[in-house]
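Note to self: the last two entries modelled the partners one at a time, which told us nothing about the interface. This time every component goes in together.
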Amino acid sequence: MAGALVRPTLTTGGNLAAQTVGATVRYGKVSAIEDVSLEVPTGVMGAIVGPNGAGKSTLLKLLLGLQDDYDGHVYLLGEDVAQSRHRVAYVPQRSTVDWDFPADVLDVVLMGLYRGLGPLRRVGRAEKAQARAALEEVGMADFERRQIGQLSGGQQQRVFLARALVQQAELYLLDEPFAGVDAASEVALVRVLQRLNAEGVTVLAVHHDLNTLKKYFDWLALLNVRLVAQGPLASTLTAEALQAAYGGRLPSMAEVPPTEGLPRPSLGADATAGRN
Amino acid sequence: MLELLTDPTVITVSLGALMLGLTSGALGTFAVLRRQSLLGDAMSHAALPGVVIGYLVAGGRSLPFMLLGALTTGLAAALLSVALSRRRGVKSESALGVALGTGFALGVVLLSYVQRQPGAGSAGLEQFLFGQAAATLRSDLITIGVLGAAALLVVALLFRPLKLVIFDPHFARANGYRVQLYEAVSTGLLAIAIVVGLELVGVVLMSALVVAPAAAARQWTGSLTGMVWVAGGIGAGSALLGALLSAAVPGMATGPTVVLVASLVVAVSLLVAPRRGVPVDGA
Amino acid sequence: MVAAIQTVQALLDSPSFAILATGVLTGASAALLGTFLVVRGQAMLSDAISHGVVFGVAVTFLLTGNATGPLQLLGAAGAGLLTVALTEWLARSGKVKRDAATGLVFPALFAAGILLLGLFARDAHVDVHTVLLGEIGFVWLDRVQVFGLLVPRSLLVVFVAFVLNALYVALFYKELTAAAFDPVLAELQGLRPRMATGGLLALTSVTAVAALDAVGVVLFVAFAITPAVVGRLASQRLPVMLTVALIVAAAAALLGYPLAVVTDLSIGGCMALLTAAPLLVLMPLTGARRRRA
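The predicted structure of the combined assembly is written out below.
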C-alpha cells in the first residue's frame, strides 16, 4: 500500500538554514572547534568535510543543541535551536544506538512521531500509515516487522532516514549517513535526500568520503577545527582549500577531480611535494 | 494441602512475593537495557546501611522507614559512583566497586551497632541480608503494593519517552526531550526495583531478581512492551515459587532460593527460546 | 633462638596481634590483585569471584567433609575461574550483554552455594553468616601447628595467600601490566597475557576464600577495589598506584581494629570502611575531569 508521500511543510523563506557565529567548543585546553561562523543557505544539499578530529561531529551536535558548553551563537532556520527543533530532523551515526534493543523496524520509525504525540495519545492507525509511507520511500516496506538487530548497516541507515522523514522537517542534519553502507542502500538514501532537496528541504550532512562529494552535494564546508572554507561546492572544492583543511594528510590527490590548471601529481617522490 | 493454601501467612507471603516480583522484574527491563546490572548490585549492597538507619529513626521495625532509608543510601551510592567516575582515570566499574564496598561496610558497621543494643532488633535486620519470606507482615503488603504501583504507574505514563531516551539518547535530545531527567527517572525506578524486594530476597542477591527476569524475557520477545510484561511475569513467578519453597524447606534461605529459581528460568530461556523473540525464518 | 621463638609465639597468642595481622595481610593481598583488576576495568570481577568461590567452598565441603585446607583453596580457585568463564561464555553468546551476564552468573553460583551450605552443612565451621561477614574477631581461636608454633589458621592462610600474590606480582609484573594495557601487543611479544590473566583470576579466587574468615565475601571487595581507586586518584603511574593501594589497605586494617574496639562495632566493617576514608580528602582535591570553558 503506497501511503501519502511524506512531504515537508515549508514555512519560512529565510535565507540561512543553519548558522553559527564564532562558535567555539573546548574540552579542557583543546579546541574541538574554534571560532566557526558557518552559514548554510536554505535549499542546499550541503556537506561538512574534514579530517578526523576536525570537529565535524561537534559542529553538528552544536547545531542540534546537543552541546552544552560553547561560546558563540547558533541558529537553525533563523531561530534559536530550542524554537526551531520541531522543524529539524536528525539522523545520527548508527554507532550511537544499541541495535540489540527490542524493537522492530516499524517501532523505530514510529519513534520519530513521539514528540508530536505527547504523553496521552496512542500510536494509532494514522501514525502507522505515516510510518509505512516513510518506509516505502526508503525501500524498507517489506522489513516492517524485522528486528532491528538483524539489519545490515545500510538497512539500519535507511530506517533512520525513514524515522526522520515522518517528522516532515525543513532541515535535515545527518552524521556520516553513508559510512559503512552498501551500494544499494547508499543509492536509495541519496535518492530520497535528493527528492527532498528538490522540494526545498535543506540537507546538511557530515560526510566522510571526498570521492562522492561532487556526485551528491552542491554546497561545502571544509572544517579543521577552524572553518577553512564554505560555499557552493564547485568554487569551494579547490586544491588549496583541501590542502589547508587536510594539512599533510591529503587523501589520494589522484582521485579528487583536479581544478583547472593544477597538474596531476604522479605517484612517487613527487607525490610528497607540497606536503609539509 | 488445602490448609497450606489458606494459611494466612502463606497468603501474605505469596501476595507479597507476587507484587514485588512483578515490580522488580518489570522495572528491571529498563535497568538491563541501560546496562545498569552492576549499578543495581552496588545499590542493593549499599541499601543495607539505609535499612538500619531507617530502623533506628523509626525506633523499631517499620518497613516504610527502612525502605525509604534503603532508597536513600542506594541512590547516594549511585551518586558517589557517578562522582568518582568523573575523576581522571577512574573507570565507572571501579567507581561502582567502591560504592558497593563502602556502602556495605557502612551497613555492617551500623548493623553491629544495633547488635550491641539490648533487644532483639538486630535479628529482624539481619534478615535483610538474605531475605526471609516468613517475616512478611500484612502491613508490609501495603508498603510493597504502594511502592510497586507508583513505580509501574510512572512506567506507564512515561513509557514512550523512556523508550526513546534509552534507545537513542542523541535523537531524543535533538527532539527536545530532557534526556538527563528521564535517565534520572530510570535510575530512580531501578532503586525502587531493588528496594521493594529487600525483605524477601535480601541486599546481597536482590540485584539478581532485577536482572534475571529481564534477561530471560529478552529471549522471548522483540518488543519493549512485551519484555516488560514477560519480565514482570517471570519475576512474580520466581519470587512466588522461591518464597514458598523456602518457607516449606528448612535450611533454604529465601533470597538464594528465589534467585536460583529465576536463574533456572534464564537458563531454560537461553537454551529453548526462539532467537530473540523472532521465529527463525532462514532469511 | 629459643627466646625468639617464644616471642613469636607470644605474639601469635595475642588476639589483637592475630586480628591485626590477619586484617593487614588480607587487605594487602586483596589490594595487590585488585589493583590489576581495577586497571583492567574489571573491578566488579572481584565481586563476582568472591561470590562465586562460595559455590566452590560448598561443593568441596560436600565432597570432602572438610571446610578448610588446601583442597578448599583449590576448589575455590576452580569456582572463581568457573564464574569468570561462564560469564565470558554467556556474554560472547550475544544473547545477554556483558554486565547482565556478570549479574546473572555469580548470583546463581552464590545462591547455589549458600543453599548447599544451608541444607547440608548446618553444623560445619562454614556457616552462611560467617561466609558473608567474616568473623575476624575470633580468628585467634582456631589454631594449627606449623613448624612447632601454634598459629591461628586464618592468619596462616592469608599469610600464604599474601606470599603467593606478592611472588606472582613480582615475577609476572611485566606480563600483568602488558595484559592490562595492550593484550594484543602482549600476545605478539610472547608475554602470554591470557595465562597471566588466568593466574591473576585464580589467585583472586584463592585470596577471596582466604579472606572469608576474616572479612567475608563482600568486604573483600572493599579491600580489593577501594585502595586501588585511591591509588589511581593519587597517581597515574602503576607502581605508585600499587604502593598507595597497599598502604591504604594496610593502614585501614591497622586503624580499623582499634576504632572498632573503641566504638564496639564490627571489626571487619570498620577496617573496610576506612579504606574509603582517603576519598574524603582526594575527591575534593581531584575535582571533575573537564573544566567548563
